[in-house]
Amino acid sequence: MPKLKTLLIHPDPEIRTALRDVLEDVRFIQVLGEAVSAFEAMEMLEAIPYGVFFVGVDLPGGASGIEMAQMLAGRKHKPALVFISDTETHAYAAFELGATDYLLWPPATGRMARTVDRLQNFKSRFREVPTPASFAADADDPDDPNGERERTVQLPLPEEEQDSFLAALKSAWDQTGGRRLEIEKLAVSQDGRTILIPYDQIIFVEAFEDYSYVHTANQKFLSSHRLKNLEDRLEPHRFFRVHRKYLVNLDMVTEIASMPGSNFMLRTAGRTRIELPISRRRIAELKKVIGL
Q1: For the segment 24-74, what is each residue's pLDDT rounded down to a tens digit?
Q2: pLDDT tens-digit series, residues 274-286
């Protein structure tokens, strides 16, 4: 049974240790990390889809636990918040921000059991974005249980967007300026590990609600970044937003094919390919871009 990934956020290591000891026997909770400040916790949330935050009200670093709850308020899939405090002063504000519970520390006998019950109820409603498996293990297609069949996504590319696409493609394929060594990497989380993917191994990025899937040649990884954030980050590295759901690495365009209707199709590399139509009236410019 999937467990709620849990982060302990408190400046006192003794309280974090006590929380670990208490939660160790809760079968549906997995403590997966500790943090001291709100900003450290928010960075960790970008890498791991946490389901629960046990968070102190008073945190160092310029942002309190209440202020962190305000940062999380706009997220669609936000973790449950269990506040830890030695006073009831901020309880009303915490519950107004959607707190699952507010614990006075140290808790009275039997009080933690009520918190666990509330988290159990939260778990029944919490939807964690599924961790993507490798394409080889993808059994969604009953006719292709080993995931060996190529998959193709066909996207419309309106004529008014083709000029900007061709300009971006020209910039990506312009060899006269040379290309510096690519060392930039994107951090993604999988099975509790942080994996660093070099930008030049990414074929395309696919939007999924508040998250995104990063596709390489043989795998896809879940990223907690929204597609717009990744577009801003990757655009200088020859990535182009070809669709509201797709961001493509133009260096991975591998094939040009003639298609019915006087169109030409650009295809990208990888087992799942993105096909982008280019109209006949722009094919001359396309050939010039790629040196044909």
Answers
A1: 989 999 999 999 999 889 888 877 889 999 999 999 988 899 999 988 876
A2: 777 776 776 777 6
Q: Are 274 and 261 in contact (CB under 8 A)?
A: no
Last residue of a domain, one of 72, 95, 123: 123
158 in the same domain as 97: no
Q: What is the pTM of this model?
A: 0.49
d(CA 66, CA 55): 9
Rounded-to-integer distance, Cα 254 and Cα 172, Å? 13
Range of the domain at 184: 135-290
Distance between CA atoms of residues 151 and 241, nearest Å: 20
Q: What is the pLDDT of residue 208?
A: 79
Backbone angles phi, psi at 72, to 5 degrees: -85, -10
Length of the chain: 292
pLDDT at 35: 92
State the sign of the Cα–Cα–Cα–Cα dihedral 170, 173, 177, 182.
Answer: positive
Q: Are strands 29-35 and 253-259 parallel, antiparallel or unpaired?
A: unpaired
